[in-house]
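step 3/5: co-fold with copper (II) ion
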Amino acid sequence: MSIMLIFLTAIAAVIVWWLAQQRLASKPWLEVGHARDHRRAAPLPAAKVGLGVFLAVVGSLFALSFSAYFMRMASSDWGTLPLPGFLWINTAILALASAALYWTKLNAERQHGEAARTGLLVALAAGLAFLVGQLFAWRALANAGYLLAGNPANSFFYMLTGLHGLHILGGLAALGRVTVHASDAGFDRRTRLSVELCAIYWHFMLAVWLVLFALLSGWATEVVVFCRQLLT
Amino acid sequence: MVDVRSGLGEALPPPEVEDVELYHPHSWWTRYVFSQDAKIIAIQYATTAIAIGMVALVLSWLMRLQLGFPDTFQLVDAEAYYQFITMHGMIMVIYLLTALFLGGFGNYLIPLMVGARDMVFPYANMLSYWIYLLAVLVLVASFFAPGGPTGAGWTLYPPQALLSGTPGGKDWGIILMLSSLIIFIIGFTMGGLNYVVTVLQGRARGMTLMRMPLTVWGIFTATVMALLAFPALFVACVMMLFDRLLGTSFFMPAIVEMGEQLPYGGGSPILFQHLFWFFGHPEVYIVALPAFGIVSDLISTHARKNIFGYRMMVWAIVIIGGLSFVVWAHHMYVSGMNPYFGFFFATTTLIIAVPTAIKVYNWVLTLWRGNIHLTLPMLFALAFIVTFVNGGLTGLFLGNVVVDVPLSDTMFVVAHFHMVMGVAPILVIFGAIYHWYPKITGRMLDETLGQIHFWITFIGAYGIFFPMHYLGLIGVPRRYYELGETAFVPDSVHTLNAFISIMALIVGAAQIVLLFNLVWSLRHGREAGGNPWRATTLEWQTPETPPPHGNWGKELPVVYRWAYDYSVPGAPEDFIPQNQPAPSRVSHEAAS
Ligand code: HEM
Ligand SMILES: [Cu+2]
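step 4/5: write tokens
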């Protein structure tokens, strides 16, 4: 559970940082009248805060499954799983989607509608391509005889990539909606916000994928072993 | 007392909360069924939770009949007893308490208490309820599935949960249970985002965090915890479903069952326990914190006194929330772990007792020399404090590794967690219902029926669970459907068991009084008016009662003071609503 504890520490740091600005030491019973409200003059949009909280939940989900991965790895029946090489290509494609969204966001802010729409379409295509690529990876592994129930390493591979894929699928649905909106209404304030939120979500899912990839290919383990050695 | 900065003459600060676009229902369906109004969603959540809770209550009756009169009734065999225990426990903890506190009270009270028109994401909020309903239906379906519901115990420990020796293990029972939990968590997350972000972003002008009523603090913190803890249960359920359906071995070790080697191997049941209790311990506080918050407000209002140590109460809530994430393994003393870890977890467990004790002191000090009105909400609040202290003391025993090992898996444990986790929060729920029903419906609940309900429930609950401590000390084990002829069990145990069962029947029946009261008062209750308890918090200041769609009419309220201005010296009345401006300096000086 050490990974989960590290993740929780990060969350706790954010919470403490936020609480520290809320004047928790004030004496509300003495302060009648207009409180100096310590929220910003231009508050963050609720949707953005909502996304932040949601990502904390998703992060907790993945941190927990990574913890489970490490704990299960300790038993003797753990085998290895040769990752298909084109997972590298998939990684690149997912990074492309993320980059495209970043580009879209910049262009949407400058009201370059045409460019922004192209960016959205590229991101959509890349997201789809990533999912198809993942399915290919599954098939390649299955054909090579690495079946789901064969070994716990295989089971985790399929489960974790599946879980991640489902989140990408959700991201695609949101992205699709934004694209439709953008072609109907152009990049008004609301669409710009949606684009920004999509971009954040995709960057986050890219980060999760990178960690996951490192985990599955065994480097994460090496890092962990190295850290342990440092500590002892 | 009067702040220099304040005064009516001053211009209002710039609006920090944008007025949201409200969604407008167009038909009966979107108004009352697929409604996006948090108040309707709250009522839907509450009704569903209470309905499924009645199922759990009936299950406990059946179990008690079996335990009390093993020879008279042949209703329940060993298999059915396990199934009933499991369903009873799971329903009570998750589908009743969690859903009712967060989905029910959270939805109704958060927007009203912080002065918002609605939750920030009404559509997701609506989905949250319907997904919860689906989860409940899937759960209920397992009663009708071949093989019946699962009998794995509410902790669902593998490997037994997936073996044929456990009811539902090789049938549909466990599959439906795991699926239902997964669905529940998805639905809860949608609602939970709403509760958190509404508190963060939707507060009315002037409503600083330190002016929020403790109810909102409790529900808010509990929701944050639930959002972080439920993923652990989610992962555990998904992995177990894989084990059951797809033949993986996440949790399943190599097992020979009836001479046959099962296709599992190497899995780690301990891994499941870690995941489960990573969720399971915070869950206790997910239920407790809203109860703490609500009780603080009930006590303050009905004792006409400001809550003692408001700041400490807030800090205690936050600290309990944080600490409860690092104590999960105290549920695993008997599973064989490194004794140093055992020591660490025992220590953190004992530390949690400190902020909890502070809360209890503060409640008592609030009552001290208060102008205590023995209204129904107050009675329930008092009953809660007594019960909670009681359960907390036995908890200190169980928090000790040395003491826990012999008492683990006896009726002592059953008595302990029913006191803290069952009876105590339920008492708060009752108190809260009597307190807020007038706001929700515009009418008071009937007082006499309420008194009957209170006294039977309170005394009866003690009749049920007090003797159980004694049974546990003798060594009567939990999760046994009958005791048979055992040498260490004296005859008195059987008499006591019969007594407990009769008490359980009476207490259960007393709940019908409440249900009747709820329905009857809808039409025949005394008109309540807008603020029958003369309370300060915003929900009592709505222009109309029950509050209409959008809550506040044309203008959002502005908050000028904290939530506990009761019996302020020199004030014309013994309470000052949160949205009442301070008297301007001039008129104040003229008055004094
Ligand atoms: C009239 C009220 C209630 C009665 C008579 C009752 C009775 C029982 C009985 C007889 C058992 C089985 C004990 C055993 O043999 O191990 C049990 C278990 C349990 N009850 Fe209750 N109960 C009541 C209310 C509640 C409430 C409100 C909760 C909410 C937290 C709750 C949570 C549980 C849990 C978690 C278990 C353990 C299930 C397991 O061992 O898997 N009960 N209850
Ligand atoms: Cu615990």
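step 5/5: annotate
The domain at 89-232 of chain A is CATH 1.20.120.80 (Four Helix Bundle (Hemerythrin (Met), subunit A)).
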